[in-house]
Design goal:
With about 400 residues, the chain is of the alpha/beta class. The protein has 14 helices and 14 strands. A seven-stranded mixed β-sheet has the order 2-10-9-8-5-3-4, with helices on both faces. The relative contact order is 0.16.
């Protein structure tokens, strides 16, 4: 018998039935008179997710990588200097994009398992008396290592030296899952994707830009076409797009936002903290270690777990999939073969994670790990018994 595989990767994530049903519709005219009834409320409601009053959302038929490029090429100029830290595969890829686009890229390499090095950033910004650094880039949640960084701390580093650089954040695996406060934290550009906390298939780059960033756009001379803010703003103000949008995904986004608001964003964040705590308890009970080196770095959307010495993480992944029908995330780049990742982002709950942890235990034992079956599941059950007040109220 064929079963739907358990999906516990950090994206794409599980798509709720309500979202799938919303997308199961005939194709529609994206230039019809009533199309803005869908799109204009989407732009407005996305501001609630990003927690901004004045920011402007953009929706591109693309991925998070396209969102990175849109933010950079619409607000900077060729040869501008950017400051970025790398501490995982995706922060490294963003830095690589900066180099390939021709920006003067100052990279601060941090150890994989740590987050944005705030002290080093503060020092670099304080020494930049001529304000040559035009943008500071940070990854809120590094999907490859299960590390969450302090975005508010990045803003404090900029403010401490009264530096005018733009603050750009990759929030692909954090938005709609981990608390994010665009206005309060002074973020000028935030990038997210449809396939993570928004619980949709891959295909939308969802970004939001501050008034300061939109002002910088006016003096940007970087070549662009598909990702042009100007073209988007001209069409978006009336509820349309400069080219054919992903209409089915927009219908899904409407359903996704409705689910998020029905649950309440603060409760969404609490649920992610709650299910993540059970995963971390299980990893500890197994005697294994997370890639995230300290509790302050722990991610509430993905846990990257080192396998025991002598146990190949690739073999664990294959065993989990072939024998138990469960998909976990692989270790990326230098972590390949050493790490497997448990995604707990989007439409997940305690029972789903207990099943995933049971499959992980069995796959680990099958591949030679000396783990007592049931130990991680029991630890997670104990953790889940302590239900946070906000979740208990919702239930």
């Amino acid at each position: 018998m064929h079963h739907h595989p358990g999906l516990f990767i950090p994206g794409p994530t599980n798509v709720p039935d309500a979202v799938r049903r919303a997308m199961n519709i005939p194709q529609e005219d994206m230039r019809s008179p009533d199309f803005p009834k869908l799109t204009l409320p989407l732009f407005s409601d996305l501001k609630k997710v990003f927690k901004t009053q004045t920011g402007q959302p953009f929706i591109y038929p693309s991925s998070g990588t396209g969102g990175w490029e849109a933010v950079l090429t619409n607000t900077l100029n060729p040869g501008d200097k950017v400051l970025v830290s790398t501490f995982g595969q995706f922060s490294t890829l963003w830095a690589d994009m900066c180099r390939r686009l021709g920006f003067e890229t100052e990279i601060v390499e941090a150890e994989w398992g740590e987050g944005v090095p705030l002290e080093i950033f503060a020092d670099r910004l304080a020494k930049d008396k001529e304000h040559r650094i035009k943008a500071v880039l940070g990854t809120h949640n590094e999907t490859a290592t299960g590390v969450t960084s302090d975005v508010a701390g990045m803003r404090r580093a900029l403010d401490a030296s009264n530096h005018p650089a733009l603050l750009y954040i990759d929030g692909v695996s954090s938005i709609a899952s981990i608390d994010f406060r665009m206005d309060e934290w002074g973020v000028d550009g935030i990038v997210s994707g449809s396939q993570k906390g928004f619980m949709l298939p891959t295909g939308l780059a969802i970004i939001c830009m501050s008034e300061k960033a939109l002002e910088a756009h006016k003096s940007s001379t970087f070549p662009r076409c598909f990702f042009s803010f100007e073209d988007m703003m001209r069409a978006n103000k009336d509820g349309y797009f400069p080219y054919t949008p992903a209409t089915v995904l927009l219908r899904g986004l409407r359903a996704s936002l409705d689910l998020l608001f029905e649950e309440g964003l603060e409760n969404v964040f609490a649920r992610h903290r709650h299910v993540a705590s059970g995963v971390r308890a299980a990893v500890s009970a197994w005697g294994l270690h997370l890639v995230a080196k300290e509790a302050k770095w722990h991610s509430d959307t993905v846990s990257a777990v080192y396998t025991p010495p002598g146990v190949d993480a690739v073999a664990v992944l294959r065993r989990a999939f072939d024998r138990y029908g469960v998909s976990f995330g692989s270790g990326l780049a230098r972590l390949n073969g050493k790490v497997f990742r448990i995604g707990h982002i989007g439409a997940t709950n305690e029972v789903m994670l207990l099943g995933a942890l049971a499959a992980a235990e069995m796959a680990l034992v099958d591949c030679g790990a000396r783990i007592e079956l049931g130990s991680g599941v029991a630890a997670a059950q104990s953790s889940y018994g302590a239900r946070p007040a906000v979740l208990a109220k919702a239930a």
